[in-house]
Amino acid sequence: GPPAPYGALPTEAHLQWQELEQYVLVHFTPTTFQNKEWGYGDADPKIFNPSKFDASQIVNAAKAGGFKGVIVVAKHHDGFCLWPTKTTDYNISKSPFRNGKGDMVKEFEVAARNAGMKFGLYCSPWDRNNEYYGTPEYVTKFREQLTELYTNYGKLFITWFDGANGGDGYYGGKKEKRNIDRTTYYGWDTTWGISKKLQPGAVIFADNGDVRWVGNEQGFAAETSWATFTPEPTAGKLVAAPGETNSDKAPEGTRNGKYWKPAECDVPLRNGWFYHTNEDNHVKSVSELFEIYLKSVGRGACLDLGISPNTDGLLHPNDVKALKDFGDFLKKLYSDNLANSAVIKASEIRGDNEIFFGTKNLTDNDRYSYWATNDDVKKASLTLEWKKEQTFNIIRLRENIKLGQRIEKVEFDAFINGKWKKVATTTSIGANRLVRLPNYITTSKLRIRIEESPVCIALSDVGVFKEPEQVSLPKIKRDK
Ligand code: IPT
User: Fold this and answer.
1) 213 C-alpha to center of ligand 1: Å?
2) Which of 9, 330, 375, 388 sits at 20 to 30 Å (Cα–Cα) from 473?
3) pLDDT for the residue numbered 472
4) To test the ligand 1 pocket, which listed residue (73, 205, 207) has its Cβ within 8 A of the most ligand atoms?
């Protein structure tokens, strides 16, 4: 039979989320028209007048970048709701957009579904406009907002809870500071109960949610990154909560952690989350995006890229181009998986059962079919052999995560000048691991040695790729 699962395991919602690998997060509110990052909740709704708004322009640009889902910030910290909510007047119906008859969340949803992309929503807990913020009445309203969002916009893949909250605002028009206890105020168990009931297929993003914040806004998971995590409260708090969690440990996660809580890497395409004209020339390049991709998707996390429409309600041409260039780059990178033309031999196959556990499962594009070893075999190797020499620099490994995250160390050898030569070492594998060799290698044999695992091997994928020539990565700035 199959190997026993190991440790904490993903839910069905986790698996669906994981398979997306990359999606975008759209920030667009009156804050855009104020040229700010965090709105104070003082903007007149009349300034929200994106006369050329076109959700499909934005969504299709993301799709061209290889992104498979769209999360819309339905309400940011400024409290302005992009849908005609019943909970507050501070919403789109008071703006000139579509003469006060518009629903921007709906327009984004329709555009995403038309593009074949998944849809998700962000609704800020912090609300710097709401007069009730800080009292129990606001929490009731916040839950009503979530209920509206969970009811009227179809099936969501994610519901996103920002830990940034509490402080200055124009609450009910009065400038004040309102601090709350982020661990107790929102009644997260009850609030997330609504999410689970109305959107059971959606993962909850939060420092201590179904998917964890990676702990920085650079989009970098750690070189060793576990999908399991044991969230702990910050000093002096009794429970972990968004904004009050040991997020310093989040880039790496917890080996053998209590819960399956893989990382989401959120990072904006520009410097900030909102559009600013003076950042038109600070749109990330293909090489910067590829570095982020390697350190997020390539380390088993998902990449959540922030995109920001301008005051016309469109993505700037520089952003559109950056996304398209990156998408074209990824297409080229993945256009030829050299593992498909290799003969792959394993040091052993579980129960000699080629069909269930053989090496054919490594190249069938199915994340859950796998090559496995016998129960007591925790070290094993694969050899890929080609008729002719091949040139490549990227190796992809995936485990069948339905059986948990198992492998802890892998080494790679290439057969060069008649000898095996070690070319790379890596650690955590999980849902996806991209190993990038600093230089192309040319060889007819590649050996993959799994050196450490607490249990037998259950590997689902081997990919071998050649990076398109034009890219050289930026000098690495920070790499935990
Ligand atoms: C940071 C929050 O503290 C964290 O909970 C999470 O929501 C994260 O944002 C999302 O990027 S605050 C940010 C200014 C680092």
Assistant:
1) 8
2) 388
3) 64
4) 207
Ligand 1, pocket residues at CB < 6 Å: 162-164, 207, 213, 217, 242-243, 266
Residue type, 295: K
Residue 472 placed within a domain = no
Same domain for 359 and 289: no
Residue at 221: amino acid letter: A
Q: Is 13 helix (H, G, I), strand (E, B) or coil?
A: helix
Kindly tell me if the per-residue pLDDT of 414 is higher than 50: yes
Q: What is the DSSP letter of 382?
A: E
Q: How far is the CA of 137 from the centre of ligand 1 (A)?
A: 25
User: How remote is the CA of residue 245 from the centroid of ligand 1, in Å?
Assistant: 11
194 pLDDT tier (thresholds 50, 70, 90): very high
Q: Select from 213, 247, 264 the residue to mutate for testing ligand 1; criterion: most ligand atoms less than 8 Å from CB.
A: 213
Verify that 228 and 306 share a domain, yes or no.
yes
- Ligand 1 centroid to 306 CA: how many Å? 13
Q: What was the ipTM of the complex prediction?
A: 0.95
Ligand 1 atom nearest the C-alpha of 207 is 5
Beta-carbon contacts of 176 under 8 Å, excluding residues fewer than 6 positions away, are 168, 169, 170
CA distance 333 to 460: 20
Expressed in angstroms and rounded, the spacing between residue 464 Cα and the centre of ligand 1 is 35
Helix (H) or strand (E) holding 325: helix 317-334
> In sequence order, what DSSP letters do the residues of 417-468 get, joined into one string?
TTEEEEEEEE---TT-EEEEEEEEEEEEEEEEEEEE-SS--EEEEEEEE---
Q: How long is the chain?
A: 480
- The mean pLDDT value for 445-457 works out to 98
Q: What is the pLDDT of residue 6?
A: 98
- Residue nearest ligand 1's atom 10 by CA: 162
Q: What's the pTM? A: 0.97
Whole-number Å distance, alpha carbon 336 to ligand 1 midpoint, is 38
From 301, 334, 367, the end of a domain falls on 334
Q: Which two tokens stand for residue 261?
A: 């809580």
Assess whether 302 and 396 both reside in one domain.
no
pLDDT digit string, tens, across residues 298-322: 999 999 999 999 999 999 999 999 9
Query: Does the residue 115 lie in any domain?
Result: yes
Q: Determine the Cα–Cα distance for residues 370 and 134; give it in Å rounded to an integer.
A: 51
